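Supplementary Methods. Inverse-folding protocol.

Structures were first reduced to a discrete structure-token string of length 160. This string, shown here, constituted the complete conditioning input.
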């Protein structure tokens, strides 16, 4: 088994608080609207959006390897804009990985913010995580971020 990480930072002219509200607090409503070709729905199965909440993200046929995943919110800090969640069912879990955890952090910088994405995974014995799969995973995260950023730029009063 192999443990690994992927990480990426994105600079944005959008404030951390607006990105936080859109990406973390309201993703279950916003993401299916912004990316209907990929995300059909995000449903809160248990909880109120805080630590312990379980969500299910349902994907369209555009995602070839799986149709959904369930995640568990492990940590959420509204003051520091840090969000951590683990995939607990679906996705590549049980097929290629034993565990996958993502952390998002939004920090203010001059002129906007920096968003730090970090993914940690542990592969199943005999399954080797390919570099192109790791790049694809991060590319999907960046694509979702860019969709939200574009929406916020086009709608300056949204999530203000």
């Amino acid at each position: 088994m192999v443990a690994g990480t992927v990480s990426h930072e994105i600079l944005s002219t959008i404030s951390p608080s607006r990105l936080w509200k859109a990406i973390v607090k309201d993703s279950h409503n916003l993401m299916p609207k912004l990316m209907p070709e990929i995300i059909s729905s995000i449903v809160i199965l248990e909880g109120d959006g805080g630590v312990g909440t379980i969500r299910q993200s349902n994907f369209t046929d555009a995602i070839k390897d799986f149709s959904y995943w369930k995640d568990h919110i492990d940590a959420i800090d509204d003051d520091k804009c840090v969000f951590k969640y683990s995939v607990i069912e679906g996705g590549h879990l049980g097929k290629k990985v034993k565990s996958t955890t993502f952390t998002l952090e939004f920090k203010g910088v001059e002129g906007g913010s920096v968003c730090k994405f970090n993914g940690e995974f542990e592969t199943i014995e005999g399954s080797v995580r390919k570099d192109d799969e790791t790049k694809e995973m991060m590319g999907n995260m960046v694509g979702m971020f860019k969709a939200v950023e574009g929406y916020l730029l086009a709608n300056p009063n949204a999530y203000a």
